[in-house]
Structure formats: C-alpha cells, structure tokens
Design goal:
Elements (H helix, E strand, L loop, with lengths): L2 E3 L3 E4 L10 E5 L16 H4 L7 H4 L10 E4 L32 H4 L22 H30 L2 E9 L18 E4 L8 H12 L5 E3 L7 H6 L6 E9 L15 H23 L1
C-alpha cells in the first residue's frame, strides 16, 4: 500500500523494500492537487504548464522492479520542493520575512521557493502573500516531502552501504522567456545533471547517458541544467550517496498545449522501465 501524506506526497514502496536495489526515485514537480488557499490569478490551463505532467507515471514501473518512488502531491507553482527553504522572493511578500533569505538566480527569475510568474512571464498572483501563507506551505508541503525522501534514502543506504537517487523532471521542448537564463533554447531529449560531478560519482550519469544514447536519444550532461536543490542536498558521493537529476523533453511523450499523452508515450515509458531495470542491476553490482 502507498504511504500518503494528503498535502505533501505519495510514496510507493515495493514489497521487498529496501532489499531489492540501492535505487530511489523522486518526482517533486508532478503534483496536481491544487490547495484551496492557493488563489492564483491565472486560469487553470496556464497554471498546469508549470507541472511536470505525467512524470510520476512515466517512471511508475519502478515499483514493480523493486524501486521506491516518492512523488509530490502539491503543484510546483504552489511551492517548489526543488528549492531551498530560504529562496523566498521578497517581491511576493506583503511584509517582512523573519527567516533567512537567499538572492539566488532562481529567485531573480521569479522561480524561487514560491513562484512569482510562469515561464512566459505571466504573474501568478494579483496580490501579495503573507508570511504566514508562506510558512504554512513550507510546513505542510515542503518539509514533509524533504523529510520523507531523506528517510527513504537513509533506509536504503543503511541496508546497502550506498544509495543512488534519481530526481525526475520534465522540460519544455523550448525554454520559456522567463524559465531559465537561456530563453528560447531548443532542448535535447534528455539532460542529466549532477552539478558538475559534485552530487554523484560521474559513472552514474555516464551509465545513464550511454544507455539512452544507445536507444537513439539525444543526451546532454550538465547543460543547460546541472541539478538544483534536491540533488544538492542529498548527493554526497564521498558518503556513498549519489544523486542525479534527469530532465525529459516533453515533446517525447505529450502535446505541450493540451498536456495529453502523444504517440511516443508508450515507447518512452517502456524505455524508462528498461533503464530502471538496467540501473537495478548496475547499482547492485556496485555494492557486491
């Protein structure tokens, strides 16, 4: 049975957890449950473009292969689990913030802990947020997600002495005007990010890259996305903790306007099952 936190996450554990494999997946941006206190000023269709729609399902065969998958329930536009808790945007607040604040590049783009705008620059709110609203989102959504992912990684690491973590994401076929510092960039099929080798032994990303390239996919490494908060926090290769961010081009599996699966969905899901199975064998071999 899945473990569900109604506001934060769904955790699917395989029957043989944690014995099956030293591999853990998380999907922090595939949440589609919009809390009633959100009150954005954009229509639901535009709002949903912020989601990593279908990503948790695309990787969902992992559970049958013995690999746990934790996925956020809350949408990224409400609060972003892949940001630090101090990436609070002062332009969103109606008053002072009593905690630490980071003027990170993501905050300056309007894509901090709580988004100020969509990828096309559309403001998310016609109001300011109170400090209490922001704190509620951190306590109810962000903290439980981080805590549960940390717990699962610790359990696997304790059993095997090592753990490999895939942070699962999607990206539009073309970068939006306010999405990154490289607007208009045409994305490859996959981008693998380990923050230039600081969050994982490079052998992890190279195994994944080679497996995907052998099946005809265009793969780049740490360009244009190196990985953000979750791999930064949980990737500590010197301690046998390896974290890799995988970005998938949405054109491979869905219509980017309607968000409906396209003809490539079944093939991609099958390939991700194959990749997961290959990683189960590879990661187990690293602990033998």
């Amino acid at each position: 049975m899945p473990i569900i936190h109604p506001l934060s996450y769904r955790l699917d554990l395989p029957q043989r957890f944690p014995q099956a494999a030293p591999l853990v997946l998380d999907s922090p941006h595939s949440g589609t449950t919009y809390p009633p206190d959100f009150a954005p000023s954009v229509d639901p269709g535009a709002l949903r473009t912020a989601e990593d729609t279908w990503v948790d399902d695309l990787w969902g065969d992992a559970i049958d292969l013995g690999v746990p998958l934790i996925a956020a329930s809350f949408p990224r536009a409400y609060i972003d689990a892949n940001r630090s808790a101090d990436e609070v945007d002062p332009l969103l607040l109606d008053g002072p913030w009593d905690g630490p604040m980071s003027d990170s590049p993501k905050v300056r783009l309007g894509k901090g802990l709580i988004w100020r705008m969509l990828d096309d620059g559309t403001p998310l709110y016609d109001r300011k947020l109170s400090a209490d609203e922001v704190r509620h989102r951190i306590e109810a959504c962000w903290k439980p997600y981080h805590a549960k992912l940390s717990e699962v990684l610790d359990q696997v690491h304790a059993h095997f002495g090592k753990v490999w973590h895939i942070n699962c994401h999607s990206m539009p076929s073309v970068a939006g005007a306010f999405a990154t510092d490289r607007p208009g960039l045409v994305h490859p099929d996959f981008v693998l990010g380990d923050r230039d080798g600081s969050t994982s032994d490079p052998a992890f990303r190279e195994f994944v890259a080679q497996w995907l390239r052998e099946r005809g996919y265009n793969v780049t490494v740490n360009d244009p996305y190196k990985g953000v908060e979750l791999v930064r926090v949980f990737g500590r290769p010197a301690q046998g903790r390896h974290s890799l961010q995988i970005e998938i081009n949405r054109k491979l599996y869905m219509d980017e306007v309607s968000l409906r699966p396209n003809d490539g969905y079944a093939r991609l899901k099958s390939d991700l099952r194959g990749l997961t199975a290959a990683l189960v064998d590879w990661t187990r071999a690293q602990t033998a």
